[in-house]
Design goal:
Number of helices: 6
Oligomer: single chain
CATH superfamily: CNF1/YfiH-like putative cysteine hydrolases
Strand content: 25-35%
Number of domains: 1
Bound molecules: zinc ion
Number of strands: 13
Distance between the termini: 19 Å
């Protein structure tokens, strides 16, 4: 169920894999997303199993590849439309759903603030990482630790040259080269660069979702697939 589970300096970071759920077919088995065509009852059961495993409720967001911010204090049945989620509530996990996009998990355990961002190509170029940092500061965070979760790597994400140029103009660290030598992007590397430049103590969990069969991958699995989650909370 969890391919990463870490408690460090008063912060819990976790990443799910595709095992331990009840979904079938391309969603097998621990798909955590309601918006990808999976049986809603199966997703509800998967989310219940995750909550039981973590021991805390999870607040999700309705991700739209933007830079919108929502501050929450509980898990909501109708999650807010946002790509940045922040809370000051202890024992409430914040979740980011991805299948190749980059989950960004951060906390200031002293100030008691946690936040997450969903960073894909669009969000990264639009500034979802600065939006997360601004939202964290607004809630009182001053010293952040962060984990950048598994996502598609630069070898596996070739893009047209002009798309690479456009994103790299905004975030130079995302510039990469695919395994066949063509222009590519490494979104997670861009995120890590931005966090490091902002003074955040960041560690990158570098597994590639395309190459790692225990993770859902939109690119590898041909668009119909589940979502895994990056999670962070204050225990
Ligand atoms: Zn890869």
């Amino acid at each position: 169920m969890l391919c990463h589970d870490e408690e460090t300096a008063g912060v819990r970071f976790a990443v799910t894999d595709r095992h331990g759920g009840v979904s079938a077919g391309p969603y097998a088995s621990l798909n955590l997303a309601t918006h990808v065509g999976d049986d809603p009852a199966a997703v509800a059961e998967n989310r219940d199993r995750l909550t039981a495993a973590l021991g805390v409720p999870v607040a999700w967001m309705d991700q739209v590849h933007g830079v919108g911010v929502a501050v929450v204090d509980r898990s909501l049945d109708a999650p807010p439309r946002a790509d940045v989620l922040v809370t000051r509530t202890r024992r409430l996990a914040l979740g980011v759903l991805v299948a190749d996009c980059t989950p960004v998990l951060t906390a200031d355990p002293t100030a008691g603030v946690v936040g997450v961002a969903h960073a894909g190509r669009k969000g990264l170029a639009l500034g979802v990482v600065p939006a997360l940092l601004t939202a964290m500061a607004r809630e009182g965070a001053t010293e952040l630790v962060a984990r950048v979760g598994p996502s598609v790597c630069g070898r596996c994400y070739p893009v047209p040259a002009e798309m690479q140029e456009e994103v790299a103009r905004a975030v130079p660290g995302a510039h990469s080269t695919a395994s066949d030598g063509s222009p590519s992007l490494e979104i997670a590397a861009g995120v890590v660069d931005q966090l490091t430049a902002a003074g955040v103590a960041v560690e990158w969990l570098p597994e590639c979702s395309v190459e790692e069969p225990t993770l859902f991958s939109y690119r590898r699995d041909g668009t119909v697939t589940g979502r895994y989650a990056g999670l962070v909370w204050l225990p």
